[in-house]
Structure formats: structure tokens, C-alpha cells
Automatic annotation (TrEMBL):
This is S-methyl-5-thioribose kinase. Gene3D superfamilies: 3.90.1200.10, Phosphorylase Kinase, domain 1 (3.30.200.20). The keyword rRNA-binding does not apply. GO terms for biological process: methionine biosynthetic process. It comes from Frankia nepalensis. Keywords: ATP-binding, Kinase, Nucleotide-binding, Transferase. The lineage of its organism: Bacteria, Bacillati, Actinomycetota, Actinomycetes, Frankiales.
């Protein structure tokens, strides 16, 4: 394992660490349990439970970045991604506090942040794989994208503070990962991880046909250019269903949806967040189709429009508060929303296809039996081709778009 210039947390070291951080010591007086739960690819995550000064239950989560990828220590990765996540949580928390985990502490020297314990939530992807329906989640995420996008864009912020925030949140290392994994490697035969045969011989031909189609490659290249240049707002940057926690309403608590793991946040195209979300709902729908679960299939195909409608409603509701209303006319708003929709289409295709091509497949497809998995993979690629290239898709309302996607599953 590479040498690390700062102390790495362990289950044993967490209690002393918490006592050394005043913001955390004040929150949790008596620690009863520490668990390492990181199931992600990148970082260490500890859930800490105990009691506060009044003996009431208390908890928090610590997330530490290492100078390499947790799942692959031979892949170096700057730990400053932890700073990016802390910045995004601070900004997004000020705009959409109920839709992200609360940030309790950020320790820049050891690349640790402390956030609200969401152990009473589930990761949405896992809930989807189990066939659960969380009816409010998609709309909540649409509101999250709208509030954070408007509030960090030049519509919602005056020019100078907007540019200062943009400059303070550049995130080159993580942007480069997205550029590679979504927009480059899948279309580069011989790139690391580009191995259609490894995805199964019953899927390999469909993958090769898709990733070598010149029209697909050009459309993906255009989406990559948009990702690299359209600095519209401080977006989440990795809003797949594994970056969302959901909790249904109970007698004790309200329904809750939270976007977490925002270490990829940067000033990018707002449509990218919506598109990544749509892609993962499409993957979940492909799972239902493969399993013959028509009720869940219908529900899942309706969720992208639920997210989109909540996004546009919320964005329109914020619009009267824009900076410089004289020049930012209704026509500018409509042009922006249309651009977001088109960016979302292309981002959705890029994200869904890369999960089929590999090398970072998702549980939605991987846990299917072999023949169904290949069938679902081929169906997803057909849907991606439609989203990316069909002239009808570029104009269709989002509801219609995902009806047409459903025809291909
Ligand atoms: P990574 O960047 O390594 O993907 P994540 O932030 O996605 O790390 O966290 C990895 C896992 O840790 C999540 O999938 C979830 O199971 C758990 N986790 C993360 N944050 C919290 C939290 N605030 N409360 C409870 N569990 C969490
Ligand atoms: Mg994660
Ligand atoms: Mg992450
Ligand atoms: Mg069908």
C-alpha cells in the first residue's frame, strides 16, 4: 500500500479522533459503536453511534479520502476530493438543507468530513434492486437539482460572487475520471476496462456495434465537450441512484430523500445531473423488464419525468428572484431549460451505456441471471441509441421520451 502523509482512520482510532475535534466531541459524548461501512469504490466511511450529553441517541458519519482508490490502491487519486465534497455540501446545504446530509465538520489536513448519520435511510439503488418504490424520491431530486443549480448559477448569484465560487470549486481530478469513464474509455478500444468480451459473449457483439458506431461516438464526443465546457452551476456530478438515500414516511419521521457523496461536484452542465439520474432509473427499469415485473417497470419509467417536472417547476418558481431580470427574459429561461433537457438526454445515454460496457457495472443488471442480464444490456444500449440519435427524442416531452425508452426494454 502506498505511503500516506497523514493518519488514516481505523475503527479503533475513531473515538480519539472524535474527542480531538470540538465540533464532534460536543455532538457525541459517549461512543457505543463504530462501524466501517464504505461500500463505495473510493473512500473510507465510518458510522459512529452513541449518546449525547443528555443521554439521547447520537450519531455521525466520518468519511476519509485516501491518496488512492479504496477498491484499487494501485490507482492514485488526490485526497483533495474530500475538500470538494465538503465545499459542495456547504453550498448545497445552504440552498437545499433538507435534501443533503448536514455537514458537521471538515478536517482539511486529514481529509475527513463528518456528516449526519443517515442509517435510517437506504441507498436508493439497493431499494430499487429489492423492488421497493419510493414515490417522492425522484421529485425531491428534481427540486434538489433546481435549487442548487439556480442558486449557484449566474441567474441566482451576482456576477462576482458567482465567478469566485466557480473558481473555488474547480475539481480537475474528479472531472477527469468522469471524462474517462463516461465519455472516453467505452469508445476507445484497448483502453483499460474496455473489454466487451469480459461482459459476456452474449452481449459483446451488441457492445462492440454500439461503441464503434460513428454516429454514437460523435454524439458522445459532443456530450463530453458539453461536460467539459458548460460551467452553468455547481452540480453534484455523480447523481446516480447509489448517491441517493431514501427513507419512507413513518409514524415517527417524514419521508426523506438525500443526495450524498458529492465529491465529483464542479461547475458543469445542469443537465448532467438529471441525465445521470435518468440513466440509473433506466437501468432499474431494464431490470424490471428483464424480470417481467410490469408494475415496477411502469413505475420506474415514470420517474424521470417526475424528476424533470419537479426540476422545471422549482426552477420556474425561483426565476422571479433572478439577478438582472431585464435581460434574463422568459425566452432565456425557456432556452436554458431546453438546453438542460438536451444535455440530460446525452448524459443519460453516456451513463447508461457505460454501465453496460463496464468496467463499473451496477447491481441492477449484475444481479440478474445470465440470459436476462445480456438481454437487459442489449435493451439498454437500444434505449441509449434512441436517446442519443433519434430526432424525435430531441424534441419529445420527457414523459413521451421514457414511453419510447420502455418500447425498447
Ligand atoms: P464513496 O465516495 O466511497 O462512494 P459514499 O459517500 O458513497 O462513499 O459512502 C459509501 C457508503 O457508506 C454509502 O453507500 C452508504 O452505504 C454509507 N454512507 C455514506 N454516507 C452515509 C451517511 N451519511 N449515513 C449512513 N451511511 C452512509
Ligand atoms: Mg459513493
Ligand atoms: Mg464517491
Ligand atoms: Mg416493451
Amino acid at each position: 500500500m502506498p505511503d500516506i502523509a497523514y493518519d488514516v482512520l481505523t475503527v479503533e482510532a475513531v473515538p480519539d479522533y472524535i474527542r480531538s475535534r470540538p465540533a464532534l466531541a460536543a455532538r457525541i459524548e459517549q461512543i457505543t459503536d463504530v462501524r466501517e461501512v464504505g461500500d463505495g469504490n473510493l473512500n473510507l466511511v465510518f458510522v459512529v453511534s452513541g449518546k449525547d450529553g443528555t443521554s439521547a441517541p447520537a450519531g455521525l458519519v466520518l468519511k476519509q479520502s485516501l491518496p488512492y482508490v479504496r477498491a484499487d490502491p494501485s490507482w492514485p487519486m488526490a485526497p483533495e476530493r474530500n475538500h470538494a465534497e465538503a465545499r459542495a455540501l456547504r453550498v448545497h446545504g445552504s440552498l437545499a438543507a433538507d435534501l443533503v446530509p448536514a455537514l458537521y465538520d471538515a478536517d482539511p489536513d486529514r481529509f475527513v468530513l463528518a456528516v449526519e448519520d443517515l442509517s435510517d435511510h437506504r441507498v436508493w439503488r439497493a431499494a430499487l434492486v429489492d423492488g421497493e418504490r419510493h414515490d417522492e424520491a425522484a421529485a425531491a431530486l428534481g427540486r434538489y437539482v433546481a435549487r442548487t443549480a439556480f442558486g449557484t448559477s449566474a441567474f441566482g448569484l451576482a456576477s462576482e460572487p458567482q465567478k469566485r465560487l466557480l473558481a473555488a470549486t474547480v475539481n480537475p481530478a474528479l472531472c477527469q475520471i468522469t471524462e474517462l469513464l463516461l465519455f472516453t474509455a467505452p469508445y476507445t478500444p484497448g483502453a483499460p476496462g474496455h473489454d466487451p468480451v469480459a461482459r459476456g459473449t452474449d452481449l459483446a457483439a451488441a457492445i462492440t456495434a454500439y461503441v464503434t458506431d460513428p454516429d454514437v461516438v460523435t454524439a458522445i464526443g459532443a456530450a463530453k465537450w458539453a461536460f467539459m465546457t458548460r460551467a452553468e452551476a455547481l452540480i453534484h456530478g455523480d447523481l446516480h441512484t447509489g448517491s441517493v438515500m431514501v427513507r419512507p414516511a413513518t409514524a415517527k419521521a417524514e419521508e426523506s430523500t438525500r443526495a450524498f457523496d458529492s465529491e465529483f461536484a464542479f461547475y458543469g452542465p445542469v443537465g448532467f445531473d438529471l441525465g445521470v439520474l435518468w440513466a440509473n432509473l433506466l437501468l432499474a427499469a431494464a431490470r424490471s423488464a428483464a424480470l417481467g415485473d410490469t408494475d415496477n417497470l411502469r413505475w420506474r419509467l415514470a420517474q424521470p419525468a417526475a424528476a424533470w417536472n419537479a426540476f422545471t417547476e422549482t426552477f420556474r418558481a425561483l426565476w422571479p428572484g433572478r439577478v438582472a431580470p431585464a435581460t434574463f427574459t422568459e425566452g432565456v429561461l425557456e432556452g436554458f431549460l431546453d438546453q438542460v433537457r438536451r444535455d440530460a438526454l446525452a448524459a443519460a445515454a453516456a451513463e447508461a451505456a457505460r454501465r453496460v460496457v463496464g468496467p463499473y457495472p451496477v447491481a441492477d443488471l449484475e444481479t440478474l441471471p445470465r440470459p436476462e442480464r445480456a438481454q437487459a444490456g442489449r435493451a439498454v444500449l437500444a434505449a441509449c441509441r434512441y436517446l442519443l440519435l433519434d430526432p424525435g427524442a430531441a424534441r419529445a416531452p420527457v414523459e413521451t421520451l421514457f414511453d419510447r425508452v420502455g418500447d425498447r426494454l
